[in-house]
Sequence to fold (646 residues):
Amino acid sequence: MQQPGDQRANRDIFNIDNKGTVTVVNHPLPTRPRNELLLLQQVKDEVNGRLAQSLHNAVLINLGKQVQPEQVKRPWDAEVKIGSKSAQPLTPETPILEVFQRPDIAGKLLILGDPGSGKTTTMLDLTQALVQKAEADNTAAIPVLLHLSSWKDPRVLLHDWLLADLKSKYGVRKDIATQWLQDKQLVPLLDGLDEVNPEHQESCVQAINQWLQSDFRPLSLLVCSRREEYGNYATRLDLNGAIFLQALTDGQIQDYLTSVQLPDLGQLFQQDEALLDLLHTPLLLSIAVLAFPALSLEQWPQRLDSDQRLQRLLDAYLETMLHREIRSRAYPHQKPPTAQQIRHWLIVLAKRMQQESQTEFLIEKIQPEAWLLTKKQQWVYKLIVGLTVELTLCLSIGLSGGLIFGLMHNLVYGLMVGLGIGLMVGLGIGLIVSLTSGLNRVEPVEVIQVSILREVQREVFKSLPLGLTVGLVTSLFIVLNGELMQAFVYGLSALLSSLLSRGLLVGLNNGIKGSENGVKIYPNQGIQKSATNFLLTCLIVVLTFVLIFGLISRSFLALIAGLIMGLSFGLMVGLGKGGEACISHLTLRWLLYRSDSMPWNYARFLDYCTERLLLQRIGGRYRFMHKLLQDHFVAMPLEQDSADSD
Fold:
């Protein structure tokens, strides 16, 4: 039975028999592998989500119209240039896929335009068409959307950057991605060439050209860049053609306003020719339509330059979005943040994203070196994380050591001694680590793989020489002290302790492997998964020890000993399987909340900003509605007085 998404394409095969009769055989192509289907679905969801949240659609939604993008054509024109030939005009009705597949372009295209001219939207349109083609034809290559701003090191080959980005964004394993690139199964669509670090943009162009000459070169490639920045490069991309997105004409602006049922708005804009010049890009035209309630042309000074007018327009858009009436799903019963708080927290977010060259934001990817700006915050962070982690480790070791000592003498006394020593050692080591180490990065653990038996078996055998040595030395020491009868007991105890402490602990740690998953379905998924995996790891280790001690002795005391030992080792192993990531993240979030850099429930706030058309959200990733809006927040000064807490 055919499963959902299990689509088959058919290929006609012509058979000729001995009599010369030709018959057509309809041969079904094999179904795509599961990992290809998963990638295709991720790209499809991303494209549909971003197009649905575009400002073009937002105009229709906020004007109370039914969302039918196909009924309101995007107003921009374009012209295509092939080599040294003169540019050829394209109309808005020309599908971008048709241009991309032209024989003289052959799937290697550059999209150029001014800020807000529709480059990314055109790329998303192409991606949507390529997704539909890949769904209908199982042999067609799969498009992938990647942003060049994450290429930060000129020494990194573009092929290696692609592998890392495919893993980070789509969760594709390196070996699978390598095979896909080698087999030409991907169509990379690279946005934001102009958003690469300015000093590395020329190197990025050269890296792309070098990749296009390598064995891993793609059959198809699309790159987007602002026209002005690309014109300054000494090197040109080795692509077959380029599309130049042109500015809107006055007639196109009026037609667009008529199509969204606001023809009078065009007449109002005619009163300010400088403002009208600004609206010749689709993005700013959509922003002006949405910001119309806050636009007061009479109050605008007539001597503003174009940059100042752009800032005024974005201010009007922000003012409209912050104060318009909405039914919030993020804050259905609670009081939402004020306009001042929203502005303040988005300024902080935009500045941090710019600092890290980010176009997409993940809550679990907040790092202390970028967000903690004062020495005091950094020291407090290191102190809390260092003390918490080291205390947990030392108390766990003290608990297990106290248990072994207590089983030989007095259980309660042994546990108290072990915990006391662990507390003192943990405080000392924690302080040393806090004072000498750098800022602990947050590394979420979203996926764990368990293969305990094999790893424990291997590590126990590796630990035998160490255990035998410790056992013999312990026995010899007891014999020299004249306690011959106890030598065997203490020697055996030392052997078992060595096997447990080294073999079993290392085996359990290696047998539970953790990794990060690039696919983000919901906000802060990495930390929530890390907390789950930490608890799951502790549970696995506890059950393992209870089972071992229960098999050795079926007494109640043995089960209690297994439980205590399992809890001790479980905490030690679990710290590396998500526990430390949770400690670091929660400490960082608490410090940022205390300094009013963000509200405590950050995901709810960011979702609220998407409702107010300031951010977009795809799965667990957030981005500003446009880079121009992000840059506008970056340029705003942070207020001296902190906003009220959420």
Residues 34-245 form a domain with the Rossmann fold fold (CATH 3.40.50.300). The longest helix spans residues 556-594. The mean pLDDT is 80. The CA atoms of residues 330 and 604 lie 6 Å apart.
